[in-house]
Design goal:
With about 160 residues, the chain is α/β, with parallel strands linked by helices. It has one domain: Rossmann fold. It has 5 helices and 7 strands, in the order E-H-E-H-E-E-H-H-E-E-E-H. It has a 7-stranded mixed beta sheet. Helix 1 packs across helix 2. The longest helix is centred in the first third of the chain and has 13 residues. The model has no long low-confidence stretch (mean pLDDT about 85).
Amino acid sequence: MKLRHVAHTPEETETFGARLAQFAPTDHLGALIVYLTGDLGAGKTTLARGFLRQRGCTTAVRSPTYTLLESYDLPDLAVVHLDLYRLQSPSERDALGLRDMDRAGRGWLIEWPERGAGSLPQPDLSIILEAGEASHVLTAVSYSQAGEAWLRRAS
């Protein structure tokens, strides 16, 4: 299943992220995995900010480009926000300790998932962000039963 949204402003991108967060499954047995793909400046962190704020984050949400990983312990969901853009080798991924964080009740927002190919779990949703001159096209695609139900609720 796919859900497509056109955003003309960063605020509209945040709103789409908040909409996805609002309808995220609460009864999912595993971790919720969301891939965020798109060129630099396409709005991946902006979408993540909307998602996190909707789930109760009150602190600043910045791109984890330099820290690689930010964790948020939110009221009903712990969320790990990853940015794999700067990773050069599998050993760098292993050093992050991602396997220790992979458990039920945790949400994952993963920017640049292609840099972690082969070592990341399959996503429930993949959100493709395409930047245009006047707008950004955001397309959420489900890859699991939980992802499909999630998009159905968010439609």
